[in-house]
Amino acid sequence: MDQSVLKIIYNNPTYLNYLRYHPKWYMILEKNPSYFKEFEIELKKDLKLTMYDKIENLKKQINFVNGIIKYLNTN
User: For residue 15, is pLDDT > 80?
Assistant: First the structure.
């Protein structure tokens, strides 16, 4: 595997942990390190780290707080 890819992976515990549970990426990155970007994209989708997921999570939190405020105002 390319040394620059290894350095990025070992400096990021999230990447390292993902590789432990998805070992197919070891083989893919070993054969062709240019797939690292695809690795990052799949990791972010699986772990729900995309911008869309963050916005959805924020919406849920806002709706939760809004529900609590409405509940407290009715009492």
Answer: yes
